[in-house]
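--- STAGE predict ---
source: upstream dedup step, 1 unique chain passed
mode: sequence only
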Amino acid sequence: MRQFDGIADVVVLDGRIAAVGRSVGDRVTDAHPTAEIVDCTGLLITPGFIDIHVHVMKGLGDFCVGADEVGVQMGVPVVVDGGTSGVATFDLARAAVIDHPHTATKVLAFMDPNQLYLATKDFICHKLEIANDLKNLDLDLLAASMDRNADVVIGLKARACHVGDPERSPFLETAQTAAGSKPVMVHLGRFPHTPVITPQALLRTLRGGDIITHAFRGAGGMLDSTGKAIPEFRDAVDRGVVLDIGHSGTDFRFREARRLIDQGYLPDTISTDLNVFNIGGPVFSFAENMTKMFALGLDVVDVIAMATSNAARAIGKLDEYGSLEVGRAGEVSVSRLRTDGPFPVSDGHEVAVAETAIEPIGCVRSGSWHPARSLPTFATVGKTWGPALDDSDW
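--- STAGE serialize ---
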């Protein structure tokens, strides 16, 4: 994939990238005098941002936010629901959100392999202990749903519960069997009510291309008592396991991120896990997540890649998203790269400072321009949340 960094016009025609280059927009306006022109002078034009872990099946339980609220209104044209729904309710959620005519954002999904799973505020499927009930698994029905929804289900989201053996999760194994070559995203951390396999067992089980979300959380078990990455973690990364931020309210810590980055383990993708608990802080937005990467010392090129091409690769869509090459899907993000800081940011526990920030201006989704709404940040509103334990798991 060719990298390009310079001043250029980007032309989207019939929902596809039609041209990229200096003054190519002039030729388009001559041929299409009614074409919409968005002046991006001094702004950053990139492939469309992709947030690979959000919860947007609004109305399915009480945990989700609106797809457009965290998608096009935040300058993010493509989002992936992170396993809000199991198999039995997925078609309903698809009709209500993904295919709804009022949904402007491109919504893809990881589906939970259980027949019944709902992501809710009170962890209802864990409270009722159906998240770890083998009777909740049906490989045939799971495979049929994945086939029926293959255009939007890009993989499965496993909660690695066990049923007595802390070294083995039938739920993760079922997800990997059903997913085939598609990725399985795995929640790193515990749940109330239902036990999960050990971090070491989890790391040993993951295949290349599988995704650890919350990979930079506190108390995640990726580091030993001296702060060094454990052998199972190093082996998993060597196999190609993807490291995703999955920020949420308590699932990302600057401290752990610094320790892993200092050892050469950078995030591959920088998802938010946006939901009702954290959209008002400390997560705020995808752009705020990007700014937090600057606070960790990562450079602009790497952070843009994490938000675009890396994310497209992680969800198996690099042939469609993650690039402004001619013929690709016409998803484009427009941002302002602000250097008038400093910009304080918070992981919910610690405040760090970035000298650079990303401010979303808008995005093109399927050929239509969507301006971003004014978004709160930690720098503008400060702490908006209650106490959060440094090493809490949920």
